[in-house]
Amino acid sequence: MYNARILGAGSYLPEKIVTNADLEELMDTSDEWIRQRTGIHERRFVEPGVGPTDLGLQAARRALQSAGLAPEQIDFIIFATLSPEYGFPGCGCLLQEKLGLDTVGALDVRNQCTGFVYSLAIADQFIRTGTYGHILVVGAEVHSTGLEMNTRGRDVAVIFGDGAGAVVVGRSENGDRRILSSHLHAQGKYARKLYLEAPSSLHYPRMTEKMLREGRYYPYMDGRYVFKHAVDRMQNSVREALAENHLEIEDVGLLILHQANLRISEAVVRSLKIPPERVFSNIQRYGNTTAASIPIALDEAVREGRVQPGDVVVLAAFGSGFTWGASMLRW
Ligand code: COA
Questions:
Q1: Which residue among 113, 183, 229, 236 is the active-site one?
Q2: Residue 262's Cα: distance from chain center in Å?
Q3: What is the pLDDT of residue 174?
Q4: pLDDT tens track for 201-231
Q5: Potential cystine with 289: which of 163, 167, 285, 295 (Cβ 3.0-4.6 Å)?
Q6: DSSP string covering 247-273, please?
Q7: Order of all β-strands in the sheet with 279-280
């Protein structure tokens, strides 16, 4: 058995900035409402025709560069997204082609906002057993083409943004610097509290005229319900990781929560009693980028010097499914 660690991280955000004032033009909302309820000031949207694998490719190149590796040194790809370019095949295959990797295996993970935490756990297992030497883990989303940009869709539309983050996971030569543990959970009884119904294999055709009229190809979210569960589940998964590793909150060098809503993060931070300076947030600039939010934040935190070798880093997420979980690493 080997130990696995993150060898390098990278991220990529589309250039187009969409401010809350821009959204005021499209729906009955206000900059004040959005900032107060979510903490978001602006988000990034892609130009037409740009997909999650285009964003993922740029993030992957940066992660490879930071790990000092060439694409040919990647043995396996894990791609987390809820906004795939096609119904099938998955984005992992498309990225594999864009990276010029001939027959390397590629897996898509459909675990929404918890997708990166699940993907990292899978990568950890493959590295620890010696199956693969270097795994590229990507979280990438294009939400902007799937949001209802009017007053009916405003509760969801103001929250999400596009972006990608990536890491390369490989063997740790120094046993102390490693992924310490992963904690993965799901509770399908809440599936329809936050979901995208159509197109659906329950219908023929999978998208009917009626579904189009009713806007059932836009995400549905019971915001208050999701809020409450996100706070409870993320703090519980951090506590679970601490207990498993016999650590206290004081031992955590940096906590990166899935960037769902600044108020959710603040509630988790208050409850865990971790000093805010040991928590990284960038939702103000990017909104909620789902599977991309943690790797983008991790990359920025590393580049800002917020994480030093030997630090304990906790990543925690919650999202549709419901799914939630945490990864604890010694950086
Ligand atoms: N602009 C202005 N008003 C809005 C609005 C918007 N974008 N969206 C909703 N409103 C209105 C509602 O219609 C409601 O009006 P009413 O009182 O006249 O009925 C009012 O604001 C309050 O709505 P409510 O849903 O109770 O607000 P909230 O404080 O719960 O905030 C969310 C809404 C969506 C920001 C909040 O519930 C949330 O962040 N939930 C979690 C979302 C999340 O993290 N999702 C991803 C999970 S991974």
A1: 113
A2: 15
A3: 82
A4: 999 999 999 999 999 999 999 999 999 999 9
A5: 163
A6: --GGGEEEEEE--S-HHHHHHHHHHHT
A7: 178-186, 323-330, 312-319, 252-257, 279-280
What is the Å distance from ligand 1's center to 154 Cα? 8
3-state secondary structure of 92: helix
| Pocket perturbation via mutation, ligand 1, pick of 37, 83, 224 by most ligand atoms within 8 A of CB | 37
Say what the pLDDT of residue 251 is: 98
Residue 137 CA, chain-centre distance (Å), reads: 11
Smallest CA separation from ligand 1 atom 43, residue: 260
pLDDT of 304 over the 90 cut: yes
Beta-bridged to residue 171, according to DSSP, are: 4
Q: Is 153 exposed, middle or buried (0-12, 13-18, 19+ CB in 10 A)?
A: middle
State the average pLDDT for the chain.
Answer: 97
Q: Is residue 309 scored above 90 in pLDDT? A: yes
Mean pLDDT throughout 298-326?
98
Alpha-carbon gap, residue 97 to 164, rounded angstroms: 18
Query: What element of type H or E holds 23?
Result: helix 20-24
Whole-angstrom distance, CA of residue 30 vs CA of residue 18: 13
Q: Specify whether the backbone of 328 is left (phi greater than 0), alpha (psi in -120 to 50) or beta.
A: beta
Nearest Cα to Cα of residue 312 among 286, 287, 331, 292 = 331
Could you write out the DSSP letters of every residue in 276-305?
Answer: GGGEE--HHHH-B-GGGHHHHHHHHHHHTT
Report the alpha-carbon distance of residue 162 to residue 48 in Å, rounded.
Answer: 12
